[in-house]
Amino acid sequence: MRYRLLIFIPLTFVGLLIAHDDKITVSFDRLFPSSSFKMVLDTCMQIWGDLKMLRECNQSDQDCSILSDGVIGKLARLNTYVKQMIREYKKKAFFSLDDAEYLVVIIETIANEHKDIIEYATYNGTGYKLLQDIKTQLQQLLAGNA
């Protein structure tokens, strides 16, 4: 009887703590955090999708302006993510160089397919230059000079 109480009381106390703790949150992103490679890939795909929508957009439409501003922001975010990915790769290679080559192909495709839209959306072609700089950073990583 005494041993049962010794086991029952702590288990009850722990159960009450867990039941009343509102700070415990379980999410997929918390259990499996995104890598910087995945963030770069996702951002590339978002930019690609936005540029396709922008191509079909009416130039005078307000949504076009919002979409255009979104492309600029995502290009800046992509640049940040690529720099972070390269820093992390130097510390510990968590993705293969084939993955980096894949990103270069995606960025080249985006730049080639949508050069005119990127130049329109990013004022004076700064977005296209930024994409080229990102591609160069990845190519330097592949060459071992990053």
Account of the protein in words:
With 146 residues, the protein is an all-alpha fold. The protein has a single domain (34-143), classed as Methane Monooxygenase Hydroxylase, Chain G, domain 1. 79% of the residues lie in helices and 0% in strands. The chain has helices spanning 2-20, 28-31, 36-56, 62-91, 97-113, 115-121, 126-143. Helix 3 packs parallel to helix 5 (97-113).
Low-confidence stretches: none
Strand content: under 5%
Arithmetic mean of pLDDT: 79
Strand count: 0
Major beta-sheet overview? none
Question: How much helicity do the residues have?
Answer: over 70%
- How are helices and strands ordered from N to C? HHHHHHH
Rg over alpha carbons: 24 Å
List the domain count as a whole number: 1
> Might you state the CATH topology name?
Methane Monooxygenase Hydroxylase, Chain G, domain 1
Structural class: mainly alpha
Total number of helical segments? 7
Shape from CA axes? flat
CATH architecture: Up-down Bundle
First-residue to last-residue Cα separation: 68 Å
Q: In the CATH hierarchy, what is the class? A: Mainly Alpha
